[in-house]
Amino acid sequence: MNPAEEFIKAKLDERLSNGTYRKLKPESALIDFCSNDYLGFARSPVLKKWIEEEVIANKHALNGSTGSRLLSGNSAYTESLEQDIADFHQAEVGLIYNSGYDANLGLFSALPQRGDTIITDELIHASIIDGARLSHANRYTFRHNDLQSLEEKLKHASGNCYVVIESVYSMDGDTPPIKEILELTDKYKASLIVDEAHAVGLYGKGLINQMGLESNIFARIVTFGKALGCHGAIILGSNLLREYLINFSRSFIYTTASSFHQIASIKMAYKLLPKSEGEIQKLQSNIHLFKQQIKTGPGYHLLPSDSIIQCLVVGSNENAKQMAQQLQNAGLDVRPILSPTVPKGTERLRICLHSFNTTNELILLADTINNLIND
User: Fold this and answer.
1) Is residue 23 in some structural domain?
2) Is 142 within 8 Å of 162 (Cβ atoms)?
3) How many CA atoms lie within 13 A of 194 on its CB side?
4) What span, in angstroms and rounded, lies between the C-alpha atoms of 295 and 187?
């Protein structure tokens, strides 16, 4: 075994010994309480049919994009879709990226410069953290949804300051006090950037649109791989920001563009979303039913959330893994979230609710958890 292999084995052995070893799992026939397919778009026969029809209608489209968008991979179809999506979300323009990770990496590595400041909520998504690390800016975090903590960081900001939040947090499912945060960013002349990955669909166009704050946000990141059931992301903002990213965002510049099929899938998902009010209402109803049915006990608590993401904190990696396995044995696909992904002591079951989950499935889930807690 060479030194590199010895290093790899030692790191994997460390993960095995502390119970944080990760493994891939294939799809299963379990009842889905773990995917981000909140409105069922990923499994929608209507969306699948529309995508097939769109591909057939554009018979001259290539299988692949053939290159980056700055070389051979751009198209009028993609640029038209970008503007349509921007109009849908009441933004000036947008720029599509191959994934949400690429979008956050490209935005935060390119925009803040040496001497600037990035202030993020402590529970911000890993892709934003990775993008910020690649910048030369000063980086601070503030306590989750804590306005006083944010203001303390704003007082020490230098250069151009960017405050970054999610409208629905991916590991807790809660929402920040966006209007109050905006008041602080206005006070300190900072720019607010909002990741809307888990809000679009649950809140229709997103929480920023629902609150009527479109014109107050410097940039929004909308991803297509969750409620929209396909893949990719778009950064929404000003035309000036779009032109800057085309020139300086490395994850946009130096990658092969999305295929026509991917872009067509996004276009059809946006065609379906305005027709999905019934699914959105059913999703809200399912969230209410689950919260009504679940009963917590000593050492177990449900994090405050009115969103599709409901988290039962169970206090240790071992508890989380054991309970998840018991739920899976009962036919329910619930996954554990372990430290260090979440802070030690906050290990949890992360339960994702969907419009297609039936009343019986939700009651089975709640009853199974209640029995496990009270055994």
Assistant:
1) no
2) no
3) 27
4) 42
Tell whether 232 and 283 lie within a shared domain: no
Q: Is the pLDDT confidence value at 297 over 80? A: no
For 298, the 3-state DSSP assignment is: coil
Residues in a beta bridge with 117: 138, 161
- Number of alpha carbons in the 13 Å side-chain half-sphere of residue 251: 25
Summarize pLDDT for 59-97 with one digit per residue, the tens.
Answer: 999 999 999 999 999 999 999 999 999 999 999 999 999
Domain that holds residue 289: 30-43+276-374
Q: CA distances (Å), 185 to each of 157, 168, 171, in order?
A: 11, 19, 25
DSSP string, 304-366: P--SSEEEEE-SSHHHHHHHHHHHHHTTEE-EEE-TTTS-TT--EEEEE--TT--HHHHHHHH
Q: How many residues does the chain have?
A: 375
Whole-prediction pTM: 0.95
State the CATH number of the domain containing residue 361.
Answer: 3.90.1150.10
Please tell me the distance from the alpha carbon of residue 32 to that of residue 193, in angstroms, as a whole number: 31
Cα–Cα distance for residue pair 303/320, rounded to 1 Å: 15
Query: How far apart are alpha carbons 312 and 317 in whole angstroms?
Result: 13
- Strand 161-166 relative to strand 31-32: parallel, antiparallel, unpaired? unpaired
Domain assignment present for 357: yes
Based on DSSP, count helices (H) and strands (E) in the chain, helices before strands. Answer: 14, 13
- Alpha carbon distance 231, 101 (integer Å): 11
